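Lecture 7 notes: from sequence to structure.
We start with the chain below.
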Amino acid sequence: MKTISIRLEDTLYDELSEMLNAMGQTKQTFYESFTRMALRERRIPFIISAPIQTKPQNVQDKLEAFARLEASRKLFSESIEYDVEREEAMNAKYGSVD
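Predicted structure tokens for the same chain:
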């Protein structure tokens, strides 16, 4: 295994760290994924995006968003057949396996 060293401006490094943290990735996984995909596709291949935040969210904003999601879930949970939804999603993604 080889080790590489990359120089980045401090602001770019910090911004990259924040973005990768939002995606749950490390810098090592980011560079390895990029390299593998570039080699496989023979081009700079992909876009990975993190949610763009226009303002920092505080705890109260997160709690309010959770409360809205929970109310929506309770409203629709009686009419959703989860096994049917899951099967349809799997068929749409992978095709029917009969």
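Points to note: The helical segments are 10-23, 27-41, 59-76, 82-94. The chain has two domains: 1-52, 53-98.
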